[in-house]
Amino acid sequence: MTKTCAFAGLAALLMSCVVTAKPASAQARTVQPVLGFPEQGLDDPAAYQGYQTRFFRDAKGNVVQVYLDARSGRVVTLLADAVNESVGFTVRDGSGKPLRLEWVSPGAVVSQAGSRRTIEYQLVANAPRILIGWILLGSMRVERDLVYSGRNLQPFDWPTFRLPEQEELISNIERLDPIERQRHLGSLNASYPLDLRARLEPDLLTTGVRDRRGASAFQQSLDWKTSLQLDLGVDPREGSLLVVVPTVSINAVGNKPIRFTVRVTTDAPALTPLTREQIFNAAFLRFLNDARVAADRVSRGGGASGAALGATVSRYRQLERDVRGTELLSSKEKLMAGLPNYATYFGRDMMMTSLMMQPVWTDAMAEFVIASALRKLGPQGDVSHEEALGGQAIRENSSEYNAHMTEHFRLVRRGNKAAADTALANARALLVDLQKVRENYHMRDDEFQLPVVVARYLGNPAVTTARKRSFLLDSSDGRGSRLGLLMKELSLVASLAAPYARDPVVQNLIGSPRIDSTHWRSISWRDSNAGYANGRFAMDINAIWAPRALESIAEIIASLKSTGFSDDRLAALAGGATSPLGQLVRDPVFSGRARQNWQGAVRHFVVSLSPAEIRTKVQQKLQWLPAEERAYWQGVVARTAADTLPLEFLAISLDSAGKPIPVVNTDPATELLLRNGRDTSPAGIASVERDVRAIMRPYPVGLFIDGLGPVVANDAYAPTSVWEAFRRDTYHSPRVVWGREVNLILLGLANQVSGARNDSARVRSQELIEYVDDMRGALMRTYLAVEASGLKHNELWSYEISEGKLRPIRYGASTDVQLWNVTDLAVQFVLKQMGVY
Q1: pLDDT tens digit string along 785-815?
Q2: What count of Cα atoms within 13 Å lies in the side-chain half-sphere of residue 779?
């Protein structure tokens, strides 16, 4: 379905358009899905509960995801472009019940006319009459908010979702004197406040002429710079369409299923997708091709048994699916965190993935990652955690505008004209670019991750010195050279680490900011309310990332000097020889002492429990659980005798007094990945064995659950308040396994095994044989348990206990394609090299 129209304003657009059978652009073509879920033979349809999705590439190669949710009748088209847009609507039957929709055909039609990109597809509903409502055009973040609010499950109403930030902005403009009001309106390409109010919701109108009737919802952004359009149509031989706000109704001709066309058009900027060859190195592409050849051979009857045939084919299909998923998430500008919910830059996700994917990615991928992070640095050198784009940027910039205007009016009332004028000028300046990308700098772990990524890039002998130097001196992003930006970021890291580097006492560790008098905000990856058990000092930041960042800074400085940058230039970029970074650059004694102090920070987090303490705490926790769960876990403890040996682990965090909060957790897996696996000193082996044993000890004593994998936390040894917090907020609780953590564990264990071997793949000494066997055994147990769950490619998964059995289940917030989870490609590649399969 297409519109052929003259763009003489919205009214003319919607009144003059003719709905035709084919797209009007000469560039229109039919494309097949790149991916689809659930996929027969790889996914359990029951786990998706009526949810299905397909991924396409539009005319510019940008990702378009369409998902159908039978539970709510919701249809969403995600446009994963430079502004992260979506178009959604809900379909119900005549009685108001959600309808299950199906695709009419596998493909979609994509086209481009000027700056407008379009995708078109057809759906069918097994009902003689359907109602379409809750139409929402705008940011995917707003779509998420709609669903989170539950409003989409209520009776249809209009408007679908109000954005109070934008409504308040218009009200503030209306309060201004006429001359100043026109200045603000002009910045938003409007003549009257009424123009702005018209942009807060889409125009929903009947389109077409005579018997070719359709419905169109068209919405401009508040600043009039981008627009979205949804067209709905039905073949008049099969049904009739009527628009009565807030719904579109379609009635079938006869008692037949209703087939209708959905067409979505945007004029937003596009991203620059990366190709498979830009992402994956030659060794991995050979590995992928070998898997394809093997699958083709057994599929043609190559003599494999049924089970072996199925495993070989499934392995290749899963590899190819993850490769395509990686491609969908990758662009020159950034790596997106996940689809559909997180189609934006997330600094931590991007950098963690680059570290995990190092065995399979090209050298250029590190450059894309580093450049993206540096491009988004804050004024103090902060790494951006997440970006707000398009409609979400408008929303957040509107909120800041309103804050300035509130201050302006307050100062006017007080008669402080000069300060009031300043507040007004600050507000007005925001309107010049209301879609300016906003960065979230609330996290701290990403600050310490970037130096690790950069050190590995600069230490890569496969990248020439000339290429590294050229990359660092590049200033094409318009913010100065990347070297200058990097040194600003390293200066921040050095400043944050300086107190503990000078005086290694617990209160000098890197702490979280207060939420209130008794609560602390998460500044690391366990960013749910309960994630760090209300700790002030996160273990992963202080015991893993900060020490690794200081080591990396030393490596970066050495690499920069060998690349031709002088001590004086580096010291100047560091803020002078007396600045925290300058001292690390110019004073090797101080640098060594700083690294040594931070390497000892782990001591604050060590928790040691005797068997008697374990039994007491575990039984208390089990008594707190429902009877059926209590009985199940009591059986596990009796069967495994997991409570008969001492347990030592690193606490998830420290409280405000510096006391460990004894929650067993998977975060030490990060250290398993980052540490030098060739360090087989007694102290090095002891720390590895401590962390691995805690992960592999059966739950509810440790973290490991057969047939499921290692849960992300075990709060049995913590106070009851922590149990209650995790019960209310399960996202990082003992109820879930995270794919990210599983892959970190597997890659970390592989790192230990490989590090203990020589170039001939033999264990380097007799004393290491038992250690290597333990690491390999833990790797295989984890791998097999996660495989058995059937859910390893989800972002995270959970379980339920019923009739004495534990059953893995999909976690509700899991995304379809997730950057952390495609790191299973690195796991499979490394396991193949190790001869695991």
Answers
A1: 999 998 888 889 999 999 999 999 988 766 8
A2: 26
> Cα separation of 42 and 315, whole Å?
9
| Burial degree of 289 (CB within 10 A; 0-12, 13-18, 19+) | exposed
Read out DSSP for 152-213? Answer: GGSPP-SSS---HHHHHHHHHHHTS-HHHHHHHHHHTT-SSHHHHHHTTS-EEEEESSTT--
The angle, 0 to 180 degrees and rounded to 10, between the axes of the packed helices 417-431 and 390-414 is 170
Residue type, 620: Q
Residue 474's Cβ-count burial label (10 Å; 0-12, 13-18, 19+) is middle
Determine the 3-state secondary structure of 269 from DSSP: coil
C-alpha closest to that of 138 among 397, 389, 440, 335: 389
In what helix (H) or strand (E) does residue 598 lie, and over which residues does it extend? Answer: helix 588-599
Alpha carbon distance 293, 636 (integer Å): 43
| Three-state SS at 228 | strand
The reported pLDDT for the residue numbered 14 is 40
As a whole-number percent, the residues of the chain with pLDDT over 70 amount to: 95
* pLDDT confidence tier of residue 836, bands split at 50, 70 and 90: confident
The helix (H) or strand (E) run that includes residue 2 is strand 2-3
Would you say 691 and 647 are in contact if contact means Cβ atoms under 8 Å apart? no
Please count the other Cβ atoms lying within 10 Å of the Cβ belonging to residue 170: 21
| DSSP string across 305-331 | -HHHHHHHHHHHHHHHHHHHHHHHHBB
Res. 224: pLDDT tops 60? yes
In angstroms, the CA 450 to CA 452 distance is 5
Question: pLDDT per residue over 715-741, tens digit each?
Answer: 999 999 999 999 999 999 999 999 999
- DSSP label at residue 543: I
- Give the burial string for 711-724 (b: 16+ CB within 10 Å, else e): bbbbbbbbeeebbe
At 210, is the pLDDT very low, low, confident or very high (cuts 50, 70, 90)? Answer: low
Helix-, strand-, coil-residue percentages of the chain, each rounded to 5: 45, 20, 35
State CA 276 to chain mean position distance: 21
Pairing of strands 336-339, 817-818: antiparallel
pLDDT at 24 over 70: no
- Do 230 and 216 contact (CB within 8 A), yes or no? yes
Cα separation, 722 vs 618, in Å, equals 14
Cα angle for residues 167, 169, 171 (degrees, 5° grid): 70
Which residue bears the tokens 């446009």?
A: 79
For residue 818, give the amino acid letter. Q
pTM for this prediction: 0.93
User: What is the per-residue pLDDT across 74-107, written as a single tens digit (0 to 9) for each?
Assistant: 999 999 999 999 999 999 999 999 999 999 999 9
| Strands laid side by side in the 653-654 sheet | 537-538, 653-654, 660-661
Q: How many CA atoms lie within 13 A of 759 on its CB side?
A: 0
Banded pLDDT at 760 (limits 50, 70, 90): confident
Residue type, 81: D
Residues 779, 749 contacting (CB under 8 angstroms):
yes
The whole-angstrom separation of Cα 669 and Cα 780 is 15
